[in-house]
Amino acid sequence: MIISLLQGIQYQNREIFTIEGAAAIVFYFAVYSFIGWLLENSYSFVTKRKFFKENFLFGPFKPMYGFAPVLLVYLIPPGTNWGILIFLCLFIPTLVEYVSGAMLQKLFNKQWWDYSETPMQLHGHICLPFSICWVFLSLICIKWVHPVIATMYGSIEPYWAWVWSAAGLYFLADLALTIRKHTLQNLTNGA
After folding, report:
1. Looking at the predicted structure, is the pLDDT value of residue 9 above 70?
2. How large is the angle between the packed helices 146-188 and 82-108, nearest 10 degrees?
3. Distances (CA, A) of 180 to 1, 45, 56, 60, 189
4. Which sequence ranges are marked TM in the entry (predicted)?
């Protein structure tokens, strides 16, 4: 199965290894990271009556929500068996969430989300109830949301070609400033 996925990347998505492919990835990452920011803050508003949940980055983007859909879109070829599709919609976002949570905790001594009180959790970074939510969100993304986003990208691609590198630099600058901020906080907190 993994070899089949890698062959899918190599043969079906050759464009990801071009400038145009990189531009598309930056676009999809930006859009899905922003949608993730909206989704997470809306969830926070519904459950805690507070819209602005603490964010890792300065801007209105949640990178975890950018990485997972981009991986799903590029790793799952059209016509994939439903069983494999559902498994990947569970595995990829859950893996991204676990790796993100573990890295953030290791690097910055802080846990941005904590599922410790949730049943069937692992180190507070992932839990079965939210992994099941990721399956549904991923299926919705792949089947209905991404085709619309891809069509939108197709219509703005000539303009995006002029600004995508600036968007990529924005994300790098935001990441650098964020790392600096959290590193300084760790130093001042004595961590």
Report:
1. no
2. 20
3. 40, 29, 12, 18, 14
4. 16-35, 56-76, 82-104, 125-146, 158-177
Cα 178 to chain centroid distance, Å, stands at 17
Query: CA-CA distance, 164 to 170, in Å (whole number)?
Result: 10
Q: Which residues pair with 126 in a beta bridge?
A: 122
162 vs 180: CA distance, rounded Å: 29
> Sign of dihedral through CA atoms 141, 43, 41, 117?
negative
Q: Are 124 and 115 in contact, with CB atoms under 8 Å apart?
A: yes
Q: How many angstroms separate the most distant Cα atoms in the chain?
A: 52
Q: Quick one: average pLDDT of 128-145?
A: 95
Torsion over CA: 113, 36, 32, 68 (sign): positive
Which two structure tokens, joined as six digits, stand for 111?
């846990």
Classify residue 59 as exposed, middle or buried by CB count within 10 Å of its CB (0-12, 13-18, 19+): middle
Token pair recorded at residue 45: 């508003």
Q: Is the pTM of this model over 0.90?
A: no
d(CA 113, CA 95): 15
Helix intervals (H) in 49-145: 63-75, 82-108, 128-140
Token reading at 75:
């790793």
pLDDT digits (tens, 9 = 90+) for 79-134: 899 999 999 999 999 999 999 999 999 988 888 889 999 999 999 999 999 999 99
The amino acid at 61:
F
Tokens representing residue 122 in the block:
């692992």
